[in-house]
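task queued by scheduler; priority normal; single chain, no ligands, no partner chains; default sampling; output format set to structure tokens
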Amino acid sequence: MNALRPLLDQLGIGEHHAGRVFGGLHRRGLALADIPDLGRHAATLAGVSWVPPVQVVDRHPSPEGSERLVFGLHDGARVEGVLLPSHYGDRATLCLSSQVGCAMACRFCATGTLGLTRQLLAGEIVGQVHRARSLLADQGRRLTHLVFMGMGEPLHNAAAVGDALDVLLDAHGLPFAQRNVTVSTVGLLRPLRGLAERFGGKLQLALSLHAGTDATRRAILPVARTVSLAQLKAALLAHPFPGQQKLMLEYVVLPGVNDTDEEVEGLAAFVEGLPAVVNLIPFNPFPGAPFRSPDADEIRSLWKRLKARGIPNTVRWPRGREAQGACGQLMLA
């Protein structure tokens, strides 16, 4: 809302209307013309502003309760998000997108096969949240958590993602608790530092690690060719983790690739000194993928070996796989 105040003053509307405008748009989901007591100022503001339209154009539910959403954008582009029901009550999480496609080309991710078409605007990121929130409200459910793990690398679009977060966290808007918002990254160091400076480490950080050695990480994540595990760990040691905040280390399990004893030892060395929890994610298949999914015994074996080394870890069993909405499957199928 801080950015809205000077604009309203510049237009002669007055910054005292900022709370009404911001709350009307974001907390109540109103169009400018429908915000109470704004009167003729609504037309003035509409003449110099633009809210990029975001619509749900397709829905793909999964048997276990998650739902893949396809969002249509103003230029005909589309992105995907996934609604994940909570195991507790009426709450839900939205996995949302930050880009149309993705430039990171991670070999285990379907979105990486699309390449990058364009960056999303901050309003398009926020728009996904509004549409998902509206769908849930119609079902008597609440959107309480956000994870930036949909299409795109959030820190490759850091400015727009940061501006969207300012809106989503603002007390006059929805607002989301900082601890309930997770930003994922493959490890872009400069924007990672910028994220820490802007939000003070209060957001949940998830790092796409996926290997315990540089050789394996370079083979499956092209970005690792320019950022070593040592550089990445140094950046994370400098990142603020206030209170009991934990670092989530995402680890897509690729049998025979990153589940060997050498990879486990490397992962143990990487975790040492970090307030980290490893999330084991069974690889979710997509057309043309060069990997296979691990079976339950392979997952349990890796979980036990990490536990034996004192590494906190959990298994994120697939949700939404039947609707092509599980982790790594988003490709507008």
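post-processing summary
- The chain has a mean pLDDT of 92.
- The chain has two domains: 1-51, 52-323.
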